[in-house]
Design goal:
single chain; alpha/beta; Oxidized Rhodanese, domain 1; Rossmann fold; 2 domains; five-stranded parallel beta sheet; three-stranded parallel beta sheet; 12% strand; elongated
Length: 343
């Protein structure tokens, strides 16, 4: 009799299994399979103690300590797994590499009559799978990459189109960053592994669409990097640029960056990062405007002296321009452009 049944990541997705992550809460929060439940076998402190014993006294003593620590909690752990299984149907447990933690939970559940397999290779195998699937989906996929100077409303336009059913992937939304030196204010970024997983999930959602629409970004969004297969697809994609007047861009930036919501110190901290690029004279002028809370003029100065220059350097060649007077017109132009693709 097989005590613990093991299944591959491919089988788990094919048969609609729900995932139960038995790693610690902090491990789970850093990255996990999207949609997974967290039923930790150990607390952070317990895992630390087990690790210390492992390196000082060896594997046998570490396992005995693990048994001692987890023993009193087994009933609650198994009950929680049982509850999830009754609600979701098929479930599979995993840890980091398909090791002792998932083995222990799967074994004890099976012993009491709750059939819960464990995932072969754990989260590490899931990550390999997602990167492999990215390449497969993107191999023949056409991307339409939307560029435009800061404040042209690209993100807002694409999110509107996504709500209307267009095949859009919101990279900045997934990355928790607006993609500029001030882009992280008020936002929190996920880990690189979590970002990659969320991007993979979006690709699976759109795998049957002939085209995918994304915003033109640099390879790095805040602290995160766009995975290589996706970046290559963006490089070979069809590129369009939204162009609207400066005054409209200032207005949009004020709204999108929630200017006035935070104290001047928050903006000054970000401004310090580009001090050398601006030069002392321009830096001091913008700094004074921020301190005086004259944000429209500060945004204008930043666009003219920093963002627009950066955009010209970073924008690829062969970009078709969509010129509009305001946000609404730009939205309409891009919408009609996408409708012509007949997806």
């Amino acid at each position: 009799m097989e005590l613990v049944r093991e299944i591959s990541i491919e089988e788990a997705f094919k048969k609609g299994f729900k995932f139960i992550d038995v790693r610690t809460k902090s491990e789970f929060e850093e990255f996990h399979i999207p949609g997974a439940y967290n039923v930790p076998l150990f607390s952070e402190e317990e895992r630390r103690k087990i690790s210390e014993v492992y390196y000082s006294k060896g594997e046998k003593e570490a396992r005995l300590l693990a048994l001692k620590l987890v023993g009193p909690k087994l009933y609650n752990i198994v009950s929680e797994v049982k509850e999830i299984k009754e609600r979701e149907g098929r479930v599979v447990v995993y840890c980091w590499r398909g090791g002792m933690r998932s083995l222990a939970v799967s074994a004890i559940c099976t012993l009491v009559g709750i059939n819960v397999p464990r995932l072969i290779g754990g989260y590490r195998e899931f990550r390999r799978y997602t990167l492999r699937r990215m390449e497969e989906i993107l191999k023949d996929k056409k991307l339409i990459v939307v560029y435009g100077p800061t404040g042209s409303g690209k993100t807002r336009i694409l999110r509107t189109l996504k709500e209307e059913g267009f095949p859009v992937i919101d990279l900045e939304g997934l990355a928790g960053h607006r993609g500029s030196v001030f882009g992280g204010i008020g936002l929190k970024q996920p880990s690189q592994k979590m970002f990659d997983s969320l991007l993979w999930l979006e690709l699976e959602r759109l795998k049957d669409s002939p085209v995918i629409v994304v915003e033109g970004e640099s390879k790095r969004i805040g602290k995160l990097f766009i995975p290589e297969p996706f970046w290559k697809a963006m490089e070979r994609g069809e590129k369009v640029s939204i162009e609207i007047p400066l005054e409209e861009r200032i207005k949009i930036s004020m709204e999108d960056y929630q200017v006035n919501k935070f104290s001047p110190d928050v903006y000054l901290k970000a401004l310090e990062r580009i001090r050398k690029i601006l030069g002392d004279e321009k830096y001091q002028r913008i700094k004074k405007l921020i301190e005086e809370k004259n944000y429209p003029e500060a945004v204008r100065e930043l666009m003219i002296n920093y963002y627009d220059k950066l955009y010209k350097k970073s924008t690829p060649e062969s970009v078709e321009s969509l010129k509009a007077e305001n946000f609404s017109q730009a939205l309409s132009l891009l919408r009609e452009r996408l409708k012509s693709k007949k997806f």
